[in-house]
Design a protein that fits this description.
alpha/beta, Aminopeptidase, N-FG_amidohydro
Length: 247
């Protein structure tokens, strides 16, 4: 049995699925060493900082099924097309990643077979189960992002990412916007209009509500931060799905 990904609450009652592409920090020995200095492991390049405990808290609060990508995005990025050069990055902020620059086609295929396909198979199976049980479910891809990127400070505390339609993004932002202290973005700081791999792969053309959300990782640094965002986001998602699904 593969050790990737981690699945929480596969039988959860919440009418939706939460997926976390970049929850993990694992760099399994079987894939070879990345060769990066240790300080990179604590950066947003390595994983989405703060998002794994937030996802676990949401799983508990909502009784929601959750899929966690447990391997570092620098080993393989689960939210990229396999043909995308960023699927297995060869540098980070101009610093080479030695273990990725010398990958053979066989080693690349090993990562894909062991990490990429099991993750997306698990997401597909759980999403099919959710859509069979609920008439109008939601698909949420949970991410965090860095406040300062390429020397530019991003003003958004959180923002949605969507491509096909804003049917989940708009009510989610409206619900979150009841907290007047938050600055929120619609397709900010990243736009999904050019495609969002995980969201599009599993929902495009279905007519079902789906989007990603990015939360600035400086707002997820402590257990108190995590608890606050879990409460806020759980309440917003409950508002979006409506109590009729709970009947």
């Amino acid at each position: 049995m593969t050790e990737y990904p981690v699945i929480l609450n596969p039988e959860g009652r919440f009418p939706g699925l939460i997926v976390v592409d970049h929850a993990g920090i694992a760099t399994p020995d079987r894939f070879g060493a990345l060769g990066l200095e240790e300080h990179w492991h604590a950066t947003h390049h390595f994983c989405d900082l703060g998002v794994e405990p937030l996802a676990r808290a949401l799983a508990d609060r909502l009784d929601a099924p959750v899929v966690l990508g447990t391997v570092s995005r620098l080993v393989l990025d689960l939210n990229r097309w396999l043909e995308d050069p960023r699927s297995i990055a060869v540098q980070v902020e101009g610093t080479p990643i030695p273990g990725n620059r010398t990958l053979t086609p066989e080693a690349r295929a090993l990562r894909q077979e062991a990490i990429f396909w099991p993750y997306h198979e698990a997401v597909g199976v759980l999403w099919a189960r959710v859509t069979a049980r609920h008439a109008d479910p939601v698909f949420l891809a949970l991410h965090s992002c860095t406040r300062v990127f390429d020397g530019i400070r991003r003003p958004w505390d959180a923002g949605t990412i969507w491509n096909e339609n804003p049917a989940l993004s708009r009510p989610l932002l409206e619900a979150l916007g009841r907290d007047a202290g938050l600055r929120l973005g619609d397709n900010q700081p990243y736009s999904g209009r050019g495609g969002i791999y995980t969201v599009d792969r599993h929902t495009h053309g279905s007519g079902l509500r789906a989007c990603g959300i990015e939360i600035s990782n400086d707002l997820l640094e402590t257990p108190r931060d995590t608890a606050g965002w879990a409460a806020r986001l759980a309440a917003a998602l409950e508002t979006c799905v409506g109590e009729r699904e709970r009947a």
